Structure formats: structure tokens, C-alpha cells
Amino acid sequence: AGARRGGKMASTAAGKQRIPKVAKVKNKAPAEVQITAEQLLREAKERELELLPPPPQQKITDVEELNDYKLRKRKTFEDNIRKNRTVISNWIKYAQWEESLKEIQRARSIYERALDVDYRNVTLWLKYAEMEMKNRQVNHARNIWDRAITTLPRVNQFWYKYTYMEEMLGNVAGSRQVFERWMEWQPEEQAWHSYINFELRYKEVDRARSIYERYILFSALVIVHPDVKNWIKYARFEEKHSYFAHARKVYERAVEFFGEEHMDEHLYVAFAKFEENQKEFERVRVIYKYALDRIPKQDAQNLFKNYTIFEKKFGDRRGIEDIIVSKRRFQYEEEVKANPHNYDAWFDYLRLVESDADAETVREVYERAIANVPPIQEKRHWKRYIYLWINYALYEELEAKASKRTRQVYQACIELLPHKKFTFAKMWLLYAQFEIRQKNLPLARRALGTSIGKCPKNKLFKGYIELELQLREFDRCRKLYEKFLEFAPENCTSWIKFAELETILGDIDRARAIYELAIGQPRLDMPEVLWKSYIDFEIEQEEYEKTRNLYRRLLQRTQHVKVWISFAQFELSAGREERLQRCRQIYEEANKAMRSCEEKEERVMLLESWRSFEEEFGSATTKERIDKLMPEKIKKRRKLQAEDGSDAGWEEYYDYIFPEDTANQPNLKLLAMAKLWKKQQQESEAAAVDPDKDIDESQT
């Protein structure tokens, strides 16, 4: 039994030592939130720090324990320094710990050792000097600041701290000396203002002025783009201390220094406000106008706003109008700068300048405008440009009363035009008219003669002839007409005008010869006008036979219906006994001649004219005869074709059937039969609608 019990116990112990089975994982999918090894390590480190117990509080009861504590701490600090000498924070902690123990000499030694390692560290110098100042070691602190500004003169913090320390100690002279040493290094703007504020705290206005002067000179010589605000601060400093003349002089120097290349609206706004405070309103107005004339519009918004406010407060209506004009001038300047060949903008600009500015300013703008010559020598590009010259010349003549300059403008424009390609007759004629107004007839004739020789045009000939007509120089007019007709023999108007001139002068044969030459030309632009003028000329001279011959000659060239009607009306107005017979004979001839004409509307027009004649002067027989000649108007349809030859449908039109045309007799009979059939159909329809009426009528 004991053995069995022992065996059971052994088996039980062996069973307890068996490794348990590994649990089976049912869901082998990855978790939604994955944990990296870095996170595990970081969490372990954080929890390790949390679990660290706080260090025990150590109570030092005697000197030996204190010395032992100091030794251990110093050994720790020294070990940290030996591990990494470049970590300045270890040096600073070491020094501050020694300072807390009032071991100033040891702390000083540590700072010196640290400076040997890294003398460029700004924090190290600051902590060192602050330690000396806290422990009232003034001379040591001065020594450290001197070493710091000598070693690192570009660190402004050292200079600020040094000057502040001296000022707190009441050593004004020492602080001023430090500032002077600082200024020798030409520091930034704030350092100069700190020096100025330092002097002002002790009422040293003259010293502050001298510092401002030095700084302005320094900015002018050293800084590439000096700032306007320094000049404004200097002027306001003078104004604040009631040195108004000095302040004005500073502003004037600033304006002169910056010139027109680096103009800034803030300077002029400050200058104008200063003068406004001094009640110098005319000065203010001059300053604003000077600036607005020279600063681009996009950079002068604030300037214009302040000028407007000033004029509303102290100006009159004229001043406000000047502001509006200035604003518009800015707009036009921007437009012409953006596109110098925008001649419409130049016209608007010149109109504005002429209404407000003096003659020199207007001339300057005109010169700028005419300098923008069109780049292409095509007349369509010059049509707007040439009016700049015309307006310029008219301004010089009418407004400026400068005839010499007007002549120069005309001559310069004429020299500029490319006469071989195109010209402007208007310019030549205006120049000639100007010379006539100046009672200089030879120059006017010379100009027009030159124009005809260089670039003959119809308008030039007409203008020259009109000038000579006004001067009653008829021989010159004849010569000019001859030249004109040699240049343009197809111009019917010129022939007519030439003949009219000879008629006015009483030379009928010469006028008739001119008309004969004209109608003999192979090519004419308006022959019908020329023939009509010739016929009217002969009628006016009461040469009826010659008029008839002219009509016959004209009918040989054309069979137009208006010529026949005009011929018939001429015969009617001839004033003789046989005029009606002659007129009727002309209508007969015209009707026979028009039978072969394809334009039936013209034949209808002739017959209507004939009928109106017969109604007024004819008998019943002639009226009946003309009524029989009138055509029938019928509606027809014809097929249309598109441009590509496809069928485009049908259209209706009216046609005329003349009774006297033998080819149309069957058509007329067919048309009469169709009308009769239509009438019978209408009667039968009416009888079917009302049968009782038909019975009553039959009984009756």
C-alpha cells in the first residue's frame, strides 16, 4: 500500500511538471490597430520612469557630510563634462550649482573653462555676466562685457545688456561711451534709435540731433536702399522739440536725396502734413502736386487720398477740380504707358491737358504722342495717328498763337508721311489753308503743287482748283483741270466741273468741246451723269437740234428706258406746235425698240409713261390704242435650284404678256377662255346654292 501510495505521488508530481498544451487561435486575421516594436519600447521606457521611486531626502548634519556631498556632485559634473565637452548646458549647470553654494570663484573658473571650449556661445557669456551682476561684482561684469563685445561685436544683445547695466548704475558717461563704441561697428537701425532714446531720456537734444545726422549719413553711404522712415523720424524729432525750420530742412534734404528715381509717397504725405500743421497751405498744395505729377498712380493711392482730404478741408472748388484732373491724368498716363499706340487714349489725355495745363506741358504731351509712329506703313494704321498732327497744328495756331511753330508742325508731318505708298490730302490742304490765313499765297501754292507732283489725288486737285476759283485765277484753274484730267480721265465729275467753269466764263464752244472730249473717253466712272449734264447744257443753250442729236447718239450706245422717256419729255417741253406729234413718235420708236428687250418691267415703265402722256394730251382714240397695248399681269411658277445643283423647290413670280407680240396671241386666247370658264363655274355654283330663286326667275 505504501509503495502504491508512493507511486501515485510520483506520477502526480510528474503530471504537474508537464508542459501545457498551446492554446489554439481561432481568429488568425491581423488586428485592426497594429503595434510596432518602437511603440513597445517607448511604453516600456515611460513605465520604467513612472516606477522609479523618488530619491530619498538627504539631511546633511555636519561639515564632513557636506564636503562629501560636494565632492560627489563635483565628481558627477566633471564626469559629464569629460563625456562631452561641447555640451554647454553641462558647464552652465555646473557653474550655477557652484554659484548656489556661493562658490563664486569656482563658478568663475568653470565659466572660464567653458569659454575656452566654445567662446562663440552667446548664452555662456550672458550667464557669466548675469552671475557677476547678481553678486554685485560690477568690475568683473564690465570686464566680461568688454571681452564679449570685443570677441563678438555683432551680437546686439551684449551691447544692449552692457549699456543697460551702465545706465542702471548711473554711469551715463560710461553708457554713452559704450554706445559710441557700438556705433563704430555701424549696427542696425534699432541700435541707433536706442542711442537716440538714451540721449533724449537725459534731455540731450543736441546730442540726439548729431546722432540722427550721423545715422542719415551712414544710411546714405552704406545702405543700398535707404528707408524713408528714418528721415521722417528725424523730421518728427525736430518738430516735436519745436525746431520747425530744422524739420522743414530735413524734409527738403530727404526729397533731394531720394530724387525722382526713388520717390516714396510716405515722405511727401509726412512733409505735407507737417506743412499743414504749420498752416502753410500753399506749400502743402505744391508738395502734393509735385508728388502726384511724378509718382506712378499705383504707388500714390494714399497720397491722392490725403490730398483730397486736404482740399476738402482747406481748398476751394478749383482745388477739388484740380484733384479730379490729376486723377484723370494718372489714368491716362497709365493707359499710354501700357500701350503707346493707343491713339484714343492720347486724344483724351491731350483734351484734358489742353483744358488745364500751360502751353509747354501741352506741347510736351503732343511731342510724346506724335513720337509713337505706327510700325506698319499701311494707311489704315495711320488714319488715327494723323489727327494727332492735325490737332497739334490747330492748337499751335488757334490756342498758342504761334504761327512759326504751326508751320514747323505741318512741315514735319509732311516729311514724315511715306508719300510713295500713301498720303493724306487733308494734311496738304490744311497746310495750304494755314498759309493763306497767314497771307502767304506763294507758300500755299508751292505746297499744293508739291503735293500734286509727289502724290496726285482727286481730293488734292479739287482743293487746289477750289482755292484758285476763290482767288478768281481762272487761267490757273484751266491748267489745273487739264492736269487733273490727264491724271484721271475717267472722272466724269471733273469733266462736268471743267465744262461748267467754261460755261460760267461764257466760252460755250470751249465747254462743248470739253463735253465732246469727255463722252469720247473709252472708260468713264459715271457716263449717265456726264451725258445728262451735256444734254442739260444744250437745252440751257436752247440748241434743240443738237440736243436731239445727242439723244440719238446716246441711244446708239444704250437702249435704256429712261433715255427714251427723257427724250420724249424733252420733245414735249421743246415748246413747238409739233411737240405732241414728236413726243408720240418717240414713244412709238421706243415701244418698237423695246419689243426685243428681255426686261419686261422696263417696257411696262415705258408704256405707263406713254399712257400718262396720252391721258393728259391725247384723244379718245389714242387713249384706247394705248390701253390695248398695256400687258396682262399673270402669276407663274418656276423651279429653283440650289448652288450644288439640287432641287430647291418652286417660287412664284409675275410675268407680263403684251398683246401686240404675235407669239403671245395663243396665250391670250387661252387666258380669255380660262377666264370665261371660271365665270361659268361661279354662276353654276351660285345657282346650286339657291334653286328656288332660279325657279322664280324662270317663271317670271
From TrEMBL:
Instruction: Show the SUPFAM superfamilies listed in the entry.
Output: TPR-like
Coiled coil region boundaries: 537-603
Primary localisation category: nucleus
Instruction: List where in the cell it is found.
Output: Nucleus speckle
Region of interest called Disordered, as start-end residue ranges on this chain: 1-25, 681-700
For this UniProt record, the keywords arranged alphabetically read as follows:
Coiled coil, mRNA processing, mRNA splicing, Nucleus, Phosphoprotein, Repeat, Spliceosome
Q: Which Gene3D superfamilies match?
A: Tetratricopeptide repeat domain (1.25.40.10)
According to its UniProt entry, the protein's GO biological process terms are: spliceosomal complex assembly
Annotated InterPro entries: HAT (IPR003107), HAT_Syf1_CNRKL1_C (IPR055430), Syf1-like (IPR045075), TPR-like_helical_dom_sf (IPR011990)
Which GO terms of the cellular component aspect does the record hold?
Answer: nuclear speck; post-mRNA release spliceosomal complex; precatalytic spliceosome; Prp19 complex; U2-type catalytic step 2 spliceosome
Domain Pre-mRNA-splicing factor Syf1/CRNKL1-like C-terminal HAT-repeats residues, every copy: 89-379, 401-552
Q: Which family does it belong to?
A: Belongs to the crooked-neck family.
Q: What does this protein do?
A: Involved in pre-mRNA splicing process. As a component of the minor spliceosome, involved in the splicing of U12-type introns in pre-mRNAs.
Protein name in the entry: Crooked neck-like protein 1
Provenance organism: Cephalopterus ornatus
Q: What is the lineage of its organism?
A: Eukaryota, Metazoa, Chordata, Craniata, Vertebrata
Protein's gene: Crnkl1
